[in-house]
Inverse folding.
């Protein structure tokens, strides 16, 4: 199939792109706003149809998308994914960008749209989450993802386009942004510092980015799978366990300052995805265990030093 990807230079997108190229079953095109910021995928670009354009300017990419003639659109691009941007106006600006993209996809008879949502669409649940859980987002990020899902699904239906929306829980792995918890912890420990932490009693669902990519591929290749699906490991692990395992891979003697940082007032203590629906629809299941995933992640950050 001919697959068009947005956000291919990002964390999840880079792993998806590499997997699609490795499997060599699909022709792939990517829309890139800044072709110079491609450090994650530099070695992959020779194998793809590169479209330079910005999603907030549909005319910058329309003609080349039409020329490529995609059958599947995987939309991963999203402005403002960092914690500091969760309540900025950039969030709702993502919605019209996605809808314009679906309209262009519909005009060239794309038959499948796959979008990357977020567990933030649910808001604080503090329990194992099914797809039929109430959606009560507490940030503009979560609210904008939810709105994009709802409106995008309706728009896709007008083009008889299969619509699949994957609500991603916490992902991790090599090449992630340095300010997320696991990279932050690794870099502190590699510098010989003792990081300040909460009590870390939270139970958290972390999924390795390679499993995220394989889930998206399974969705591309499952023609009857549509609707909303949770995407996580399906298994919650205490943050204290994850932090201690990471510390032990670097220096088991380093002190961890648990309890020196207070919990946020809106702290979620239990975040866990029920992934049964995704597994049933596609046959996918995660294969990277937390020990393997943390070792791979630590080794990657070590390689940069």
């Amino acid at each position: 199939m001919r697959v068009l990807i947005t956000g291919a230079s990002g964390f999840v997108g880079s792993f998806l792109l590499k997997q699609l190229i490795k499997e060599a079953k699909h022709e792939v095109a990517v829309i890139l706003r800044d072709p110079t910021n491609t450090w994650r995928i530099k070695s992959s670009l020779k194998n793809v149809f590169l479209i330079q354009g910005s999603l907030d300017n549909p005319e910058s990419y329309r003609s080349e998308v039409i020329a490529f003639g995609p059958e599947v659109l995987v939309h991963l691009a999203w402005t403002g994914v960092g914690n500091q941007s969760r309540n900025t106006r950039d969030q709702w600006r993502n919605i019209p960008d996605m809808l314009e993209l679906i309209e262009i996809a519909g005009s060239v008879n794309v038959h499948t749209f796959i979008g990357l949502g977020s567990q933030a669409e649910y808001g604080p649940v503090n329990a194992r989450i099914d797809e039929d859980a109430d959606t009560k987002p507490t940030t503009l990020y979560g609210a904008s993802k939810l709105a994009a899902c709802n409106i995008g699904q309706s728009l896709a239906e007008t083009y008889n386009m299969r619509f699949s929306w994957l609500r991603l829980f916490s992902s991790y792995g090599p090449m992630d942004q340095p300010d997320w918890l696991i990279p932050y912890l690794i870099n502190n420990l590699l510098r010989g510092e003792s990081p300040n932490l909460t009590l870390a009693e939270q139970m958290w669902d972390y999924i390795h980015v390679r499993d995220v990519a394989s889930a998206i591929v399974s969705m591309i290749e499952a023609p009857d799978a549509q609707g909303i699906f949770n995407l996580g490991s399906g298994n919650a692990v205490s943050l204290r366990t994850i932090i201690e395992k990471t510390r032990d891979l670097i220096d088991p003697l380093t002190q961890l300052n648990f309890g020196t940082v207070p919990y946020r007032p809106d702290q979620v203590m239990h975040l866990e995805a029920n992934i049964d629906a995704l597994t049933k629809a596609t046959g996918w299941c995660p294969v990277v265990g937390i020990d393997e995933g943390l070792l791979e992640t630590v080794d990657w950050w070590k390689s940069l030093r």
User: Anything to note?
Assistant: The mean pLDDT is 96. The first helix runs from residue 11 to 23. Residues 28 and 144 are 28 Å apart (CA to CA). Residues 2-171+208-232+274-283 form a domain with the Rossmann fold fold (CATH 3.40.50.720).
